[in-house]
Write a structure and sequence with these properties.
Elements: H1 2-10, H2 17-49, H3 52-63, H4 65-76, H5 81-98, H6 102-120, H7 127-145, H8 147-167, H9 169-185, H10 190-197, H11 201-221, H12 223-235, H13 243-248, H14 254-270, H15 290-305, H16 313-340
């Protein structure tokens, strides 16, 4: 047994939860950004501006989301080059076979195929045939055998959450906003999670609210400690920057979490904010304004489909309030109250920028 473990370690197969659920999952989200997400944005801009070639390029980018995710996962897992390149075929197979739940299928199958490929890499004199052959066959068989079930399970989970949000918008608005907002700040990928289960609609709007509450919340509460640099780094970058401080002083997270519990049901019950763009956008918040672009893209998709007549003033008001104004005001008030009560100090929120 020790010999097997030693061989696996030598080949870089560590069976590490961090490697799979932090590094690989985060990389998968980047693969989605570099394909489906940017493709959707380019297509939307091209459609609105009447630039046909931009629409075509955007469609090209969106079409390779499976290979992009799988290659990104392999890169995060430090796959040898032949394994890494072979994962393009694995990603395509898993995404295609997984249907609507393709991103989760890609994650599971690409990780397994990558690790199998590592085990045979550079073990024979015909490595250029053996390594890609084994990697692609392993990934292909898994795609044929389990990807449809993984995809169906992911779709069922997403549909269940979305159904529950439609049925109980107030309660689920709180639960989804808080849960996804927390995931965004933790060293995991909220975007990848939302993409994996296809979280859109009203539940996607609640997820967006939770993410914005964390990003804008930390940016505002820590402004005195971190200045404009910290405001931008957290407000349009990521609230994950505060993770080290959260470990030292968990109470600094309270304003953001409480804010998300307030803005979540406001998004679902008052403004009926829906994310009908790419599901990955639901977990992005204000990062590069991708969440807001996703909502706008969804509006345009709905108009094109005939399910929405036009973008109203109330739509814009809800998006701006939920994304920026309410998180800033509510978290700012809560932050001052907690600081005044001695729960935490500005120094507890200091970033090394």
């Amino acid at each position: 047994m020790s010999a097997v473990k030693e061989y696996c370690t030598k080949k870089g197969v560590t069976l590490s939860a961090k490697a799979y659920f932090v590094d690989a999952l985060g990389a998968m989200a980047q693969g989605l950004f570099a394909s489906l997400l940017i493709g959707t944005i380019l297509s939307t801009i091209g459609t609105q501006a009447g630039i046909e070639w931009l629409v075509t390029i955007g469609n090209f980018a969106s079409a390779v989301k499976g290979p992009a995710m799988a290659i990104a996962i392999g890169y995060a897992l430090k796959a040898p080059t032949l394994v890494l390149f072979s994962l393009a075929a694995v990603g395509y197979a898993a995404d295609t076979s997984g249907g609507a739940g393709g991103p989760l299928a890609v994650f599971v199958i690409a990780v397994i195929a990558c690790e199998i490929g590592k085990l045979v890499s550079k073990q024979t004199k015909v490595d250029i045939i053996v390594t890609p052959g084994v990697t692609i066959i392993a990934g292909g068989l898994l795609s044929l055998g389990i990807a449809p079930y993984i995809g169906a399970a992911a779709q069922a989970a997403g549909n269940g959450i979305m159904w529950a949000t439609e049925l109980r918008p107030f309660l689920m608005g709180i639960i989804v906003a808080v849960a996804v907002g927390i995931a965004l700040t933790l060293p995991i990928s909220s975007a990848a999670i939302c993409a994996a289960i296809g979280l859109t609609g009203l539940a996607g709007g609640a997820a967006l609210a939770g993410c914005c509450a964390n990003m804008i919340g930390f940016a505002i509460v820590s402004f005195k400690a971190n200045g404009v640099g910290g405001l931008l780094a957290q407000g349009i970058g990521t609230s994950m920057l505060q993770m080290g401080n959260i470990v030292k002083k968990p109470s600094i997270w309270l304003p953001a979490i409480i804010t998300s519990a307030i803005t979540g049901p406001l998004a679902t019950c008052v403004f009926h904010l829906e994310m009908n763009g790419a599901a990955v956008s639901s977990g992005m918040g204000t990062c590069g304004l991708v969440g807001q672009i996703g909502v706008f893209t969804g509006w345009m998709n709905d108009i094109a489909a005939g399910t929405k007549a036009a973008i109203t003033g109330m739509d814009w008001l809800g998006l701006i309030l939920i994304s920026f104004i309410l998180p800033a005001v509510i978290s700012g008030i809560l932050g001052k109250a907690f600081k005044a009560g001695g729960v935490f100090t500005d120094e507890d929120l200091k970033l090394d920028l």
